[in-house]
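Supplementary Methods, section 5.1.

A reviewer requested that the exact input to the structure prediction be made available. We therefore reproduce it here, unchanged from the version used in the analyses.
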Amino acid sequence: MKELTHTLLTQFVRTFAPKIDHRGICNGFTSMWLQAALTSKKDLAFFYQRLDELSLELKQKTPADLKAEIDSIYNDRAQNANNTILSDENVKKIEKRAFAEAVAIQQEPNKAINSEFFQHNKEKLYPLTASKKMEEQSKNLEE
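The structure derived from this sequence is encoded token-by-token as follows.
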């Protein structure tokens, strides 16, 4: 990981989920890391690759600038519904938003999405953010 500071990561996540409290973003981040670590080495490597790419992106622009770019991609897609193919670059940018929102959901879901979801209610929360492989592993552990 290349110089992705705690403050910058917090700003990044709060740019996409401004209602969450900055004091718990570490919990959401750690939960996302744990999900990747328990899924596979490939997923863990992807997690770190995602952070490296995010770090490089945020060296060149602010989280707000990145959000504006991603919002622009969504707006373009809404206006050009016929165009179903996204460039690899745009897919990577959209994925950064998904990552920020997933961290927010893991950290404080009652403020990030809906009041029905609370951080301590993992039965409702994990299926929203965990991979299918994680769900299967969880079921196997319960048996």
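DSSP finds eight helices and no strands in the chain. These observations are discussed further in the main text.
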